[in-house]
Write a structure and sequence with these properties.
By secondary structure, the protein is an alpha/beta fold. It has a single domain, classed as Maf protein. About 35% of the residues lie in helices and about 20% in strands. The protein has 7 helices and 7 strands, in the order βαβαβααβαβββαα. Strands 2-1-3-4-5-6-7 form a 7-stranded mixed sheet, with helices on both faces. Helix 1 links the parallel strand 1 and strand 2. The chain is globular and about 55 Å long. It starts with a strand and ends with a helix. The structure holds inosinic acid (IMP). Inosinic acid binds next to strand 3 and helix 3.
């Protein structure tokens, strides 16, 4: 069994669709570090979640990255949504010639044990880019260094798209201004969106790895 540490039951429902192992929710609101990339936020979250539960955990972190803004708002997506609002994000993006963007999600897994050799996530498209995080960079005390050594596996899912004027009523967050294949996420129903979502892609990659690990362990 895996524990999904999140306050969002919708994420847990989505995870159950991908994982063959039972998933339970623990609504522990771990403190999120401020970092310029989603992978660091997710990795730190997974360690905090593991320390809280003491068993195998996943957490996820996601956001919208806009190419013309060097990936902003990325890990600050929730904050920017609450402060600027998505209409104003669109107003900023519309001035740019390049309005390409992506939803990115990182699922982080921690069970307190070290994993087989490959330290990199199961992601061939962006291997070694924003997931190649040097987490020790900011660690100064022994405690902080030890903290970075609890092994975490990261799995990224990416959906490329374009920032557009808001359209559509469903979904949440940035869905109305994110267009994929001619429609915004807010113009799709939940099922359609989940089938292509960044979180789904990250969960699928995690499920593939997790099942393989368990099979190798003879479980
Ligand atoms: P979190 O991963 O739930 O913390 O998501 C962070 C923020 O990213 C959310 O508050 C939303 O603003 C944005 N976000 C993440 N996933 C989506 C999505 O599927 N649609 C729209 N916005 C999203």
């Amino acid at each position: 069994m895996i524990t999904f540490v999140t306050t969002n039951p919708g994420k847990v429902r989505e995870a159950r669709e991908y994982l063959s192992t039972p998933v339970e929710q623990v609504a522990f609101d771990y403190p999120e570090v401020q970092a310029a990339d989603l992978a660091t936020v997710a990795a730190r979250g997974a360690r905090a979640a593991y320390r809280h539960t003491g068993g195998p955990v996943i957490v996820d972190d996601s956001g919208l990255t806009i190419d013309a803004f060097d990936g902003f708002p990325g890990p600050y997506s929730a904050y920017v949504q609450d402060t600027l609002g998505i209409e104003r994000v669109w107003e900023l993006a519309r001035r740019e010639d390049d309005r390409s963007a992506a939803f990115r999600g990182v699922v982080a897994y921690c069970d307190g044990t070290a994993f087989e050799a490959t330290p990199e996530p199961v992601d061939t498209e962006r291997r070694g880019q924003d997931l190649g995080v040097d987490e020790r960079a900011g660690a100064t005390t022994d405690e902080q260094v030890a903290e970075t050594e609890l092994p975490v596996r990261l799995f990224e899912g990416v959906v490329p798209g374009t920032v557009v004027a808001p359209r559509g009523e469903s979904g949440f967050g940035y869905d109305p201004i994110f267009e994929y294949d001619g429609r915004t996420f807010a113009e799709m129903d939940t099922e359609e969106k989940n089938a292509i979502s960044h979180r789904g892609r990250a969960l699928a990659r995690f499920a593939e790895w997790y099942d393989r690990e368990r099979a190798a362990d003879g479980e």
